[in-house]
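To the team - NAP complex, inputs and output below.
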Amino acid sequence: MQAEHRKPEQRSVVIVTGASSGIGREAALAFAARGSTVVGVARRQPLLDEVMQQCRQHTPESFALCGDLGDREFAQALVPAVEARLGRVDVLINNAAISKHKHIYHVSADEAEAVMRINFLSCVWTTLAAIPVFLRGGGGTIVNVSSFAAIVAPPREAIYAASKAAMNAFSQGLWLDLEGSGIHVALVNPGPIDTEIWEKEDEPPAYNGRKYPPSIVVDAIFESIEKQIHEVTVPRFDAQLLSARALALLAPGLLRMGMRRMEPVTDAVLDAARKRAGAKAAHPSPG
Ligand SMILES: NC(=O)c1ccc[n+]([C@@H]2O[C@H](COP(=O)([O-])OP(=O)(O)OC[C@H]3O[C@@H](n4cnc5c(N)ncnc54)[C@H](OP(=O)(O)O)[C@@H]3O)[C@@H](O)[C@H]2O)c1
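Output:
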């Protein structure tokens, strides 16, 4: 028998990771304005405190949990800690992530691991901890904020796109495994959204097209919970995103050509990479 799903109605408890800025900030404020108690998670305490202070004007029990989601112990303790303090958890929004717009020649193994831990594994860790809490509570919703990069990998984003594609595959697997449990999993794939994530890039991206307001992602999050939607890509009707999707299915070679042109690999980058590769072979480090 299908368990009854809880909707994000008044007095529900919602955990929002990455609530200190951008989409997570807007989502936290919107949930609180609708009457949900919000638990915001991020590393930058002053920013997070400011958001939670605003949330508390609507829902006084809202509070912040400050920490690094790349740390497995912290990530897996989140949902049980909220259940222990508030007695329930209704919605978990896995939204925190870091960007990594950097040529693969320049990406270190440590950087790649950090991206996978923060963007993908943290979502696995919070989800594994949330499942028993939701089963005890009679159901719940997990919203995974992924990216259009999971569908079409942009240039210089091999690691970031891989972290998001892993999140998408994980969510697809959850749809099957959690059948009948009362736990709904929603996947939201944003296109370009106007947040500070663009200012945190290691190498400036060439993209200078339209960026949409974070509110379109927040609306999609609410819609995916209320209508039990499995996957939504926003904006829904952007010509560039629609044509990229169509080309990925029908003419992947053409898509690759277009994507390469967005940010061509310059001779200087390739020469420098070859030089570094040569220098390494000439002076191999022990171990
Ligand atoms: N903006 C876009 O164009 C776009 C497009 C596609 C997908 N997305 C996705 O949308 C989500 C939100 O991104 P955004 O655009 O709102 O960017 P943002 O403003 O940079 O927000 C990222 C959030 O994640 C938190 N975070 C990062 N690393 C963390 C860590 N190790 N531990 C805990 N929290 C961490 C940040 O807080 P602290 O730094 O305080 O920890 C911040 O609150 C991300 O999953 C992103 O991949 C964004």
